[in-house]
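Something for you to look into today, if you have time. I want to see for myself how the chain folds. Leave the record below and I will have a look.
***
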Amino acid sequence: MKKAVVLLSGGIDSTTALFWAKGRGYKCLCLVFDYGQRHKKEINQAKLIAQKAGCEYKVLRIALAGGGSSLVNRQISLARPKISKSIPATYVPARNIIFLSFAVSFAESRKANTIVIGTNQIDYSNYPDCRSEFLKAFQRAVNKGTKSAIAGNLFKIVAPLENKTKARIIKTAKKLNVPLELTWSCYGGGKRPCGKCASCLIRAKGFKEAGIKDPCLE
């Protein structure tokens, strides 16, 4: 059976990407990252999602340098008055570069050559490492610098949601029977989503445009 390493954060996008990969016959190995974020709720939800999907998962604890992101620094506000085109304070320097590097290392050791990531470049927070041009460049780099690729087993970085709006992603999730009630998007770790951070705003907009009720708000 073909294998895929899936980056699983516990949010809608990564969870939908996981179920997309399962639907295409991949045996999915989920990587969940504990990188010093404000709360552990998204990590716990990612574990529950992996279990629900019947997939093996591994939590990697890493220390990302610096505290310049509001996702790791409690002194920086999470709230944004509106969704804008600027790179927000929630940007974590080089996060996807680091995550994907771990994923490639893990994949090579497990004889998998597909990495699945739930990034999209339509309804997102303007992170530069979510764009398709970055993913293509990263794929070229790992295929120049890994033993598997040199031997002919090239890596593929697959972002099945990269050109979908959040509404389309949510509709896709419904078709794939994704457990949306288990997903967590809020940058805060409360019992209910804060409704103020950029991730909450994007999620709310997506559910509204999809014409579907968010099960996390019921």
In short: Helices lie at 12-23, 41-53, 95-109, 132-142, 147-150, 166-175, 198-210. The beta strands are 3-7, 27-34, 56-61, 114-116, 156-158. The CA atoms of residues 186 and 200 lie 5 Å apart.
